[in-house]
Structure formats: structure tokens, C-alpha cells
Design brief:
214 residues, mainly alpha, Arc Repressor Mutant, subunit A, Tetracycline Repressor, domain 2, 0% strand
Length: 214
Amino acid sequence: MTLNPLSAAPADAAAATRAEAQRQRILDAAQRCFIARGFHAGSISDIAAEAEISQGLMYRYFDNKRALVLALIERQLAHDEEAIGHMPAASDLVEGLLRCYRLWARGETLETRGNAIANVALYAEITAEAHRDPVVAEVLRRHDQQTSAAIAGWLRQHDIAHGRTPVAADVERRTLLMRLLVEGLAMRAVRDPDLAEATVRALLADAIATVLAE
């Protein structure tokens, strides 16, 4: 029997969709395990059990834990770049960061991954692994550079929309301030989870005004 290539195409597309859904399910399970147990304590068997699949099936998608970590970083990058392109106005940005602080302080994971730090524990695990594994370090460095480039692009567009000519050095400085703000806020949420909300909001408003040059 001769197969019609036109009829085979939908079947191939459906198989690819199922495979990608399975891959994302494994990544979600790995993320939960790494958050709960840490990178080195979270084993392949733990992740397979969390994903409710066999270890053999898991190895069809990821060779080892390093591959899982690299895939998590790549997935985060894609979400970050999409989210940065749709960042809100200053007041909404302040409230969004304040919401992040509350969730980080409770040890929760942001519902959407459109933030460089979806979960502080996972962020710390991957950062620590970058000090031990040069491959992870290189991928994380590229992620960091691309995220900063996306923020800088957004800031340039913001300046243009407000009738200002972007200055490269100034945009670079404000981009770094934004990165320091978010990463510092995440660490502060863990170490000092009971800061007065009004204080955090006021400080964020001042910092975001500087980031946006407003």
C-alpha cells in the first residue's frame, strides 16, 4: 500500500506535538524536584516519578541532569524575551515586582515564567551549578546577555516613545540597574520576607523611575 504524503503530514505534526508536550511535562517535573530537593539531591528517578513516566522514556528526551538544566535555562530565556517585549507602564511594573516579592517571600513559583526569576530556590540552584559546570555557565551567560539585550531594546523603544534619543551608555546603565533591582529583590525576599509593603513599593517606584528615566 502506498501512503499519501499529504495524509502522513498531519500524523507527523500530531506526533511532534505529543513529543513536545511530554518534553515540557518532564521539564515541569524536573523544576519541581530541583526546587524541593536541590539540583544534586533531585535524581533522575525522582524526576521520572514526578512526571509519572519510566526512566527509560525520560532518557529518550534528556540524556542527563545537565541536559535538563540547560533546557530549563533555554525555556526561561524564551519566556523572558517574550515578557520583556510586553512590559507594562511604570506603575504596573512596580505592582508587578511587588507581587513577585510577595511570592518569592513565601517560596512560591510565579504562575508564568515570564520573569528572570520564576522561583528563587531554582534560580539559586542553577546559579550555583554554573560555578561548577562550565557548560551550564556558558549557557547561563548567554541567557544573561540575551535578556539584557532584550531589556535594553525595550528601554530604547521607551525612550523613543517619550521623544528622547536613546544614548547607548545610559541605556546600558539603566539595563544593569533593572537587573540588579530584580535579582536583589529576589534575594531580599528570602532573607527579609516581612518588609513593610509600603516601604518596598516606595523604593521600587523610585528605582523604576530611574530605570525609565522618568
